Amino acid sequence: MNIYYSKTLQELDAAINEIEIEVDHSIQRLETIIDLILKCLNKVKDYVLKRGFKNFDEEVRFFKYQKPAIVSKLVYYNAIYKIETRKPYGLKRIRKFYTKELKKLKRFFDNNLDFYKYYRSNNSFFDEKFFVRGEHDIRLWLDTFYFEADHQFSTSHDYKVAKIIANDLIQVYLEGKLNYINHKKSLNASLNWTTSKTALTELIYALYSHGVFNNGNTDIKLIAKAFEGAFNIELGDFYHTFTELKARKINRTKFLDSLCEALNKKMEEQDDK
């Protein structure tokens, strides 16, 4: 069992690392990894049901350490998939969303504190109840999930161990995201748009018209909100501002033209040095 499991886990980790490197689109990458883990888990299940366990210790080791190591990957990547597909727009709303997700992890920890202590202290006196099939005790921190599971391939607490492992990784992921947002906010705080709102609206519409964001599949309102957050400015009714730009009789692209002029001047100055 140990040789088979070690080889299977090693192959799974290698395949996940390859996908992490090669697939750029985050959601597609997560979907591919989840599918890969499910196939691996089914393969391990078929092996276990066909082979069985030689003794008590082998069964406990599998359900306490080996199966949770694989299932925790599934829990982790599925959680990240849900987080990223439900994530709102705007730094303020995203920060609130990530913070709420962290609170969910804290609630799970608080609700399972006794088992956390048992597992992380590497205790074994309840292992026969926790990690042997068909030996559950409803008085020992039992989840409703267990009653819906396949009891040929589940014990009362192997999934809870997987959740503990996965939650630690999810916490690192969320805290990293929040640190990035806070760092980004700190950087943005020093960047203030100091020319006119009309000029910024002209720039935003130029970028929108050229399709430079998300292959041209981004709403103008989202682009405007991003610029407002980045440069600490409120554009107000930028649709109306754009209408005024269109109504100009002369030089509709006054700001863009001035950018080109300033850049060319800078290049000429650099050439003269």
TrEMBL record:
It comes from the Bacteria. It holds the Pfam family RteC. InterPro entries: Tet_reg_excision_RteC. This is Tetracycline regulation of excision, RteC. It comes from Sphingobacterium siyangense.
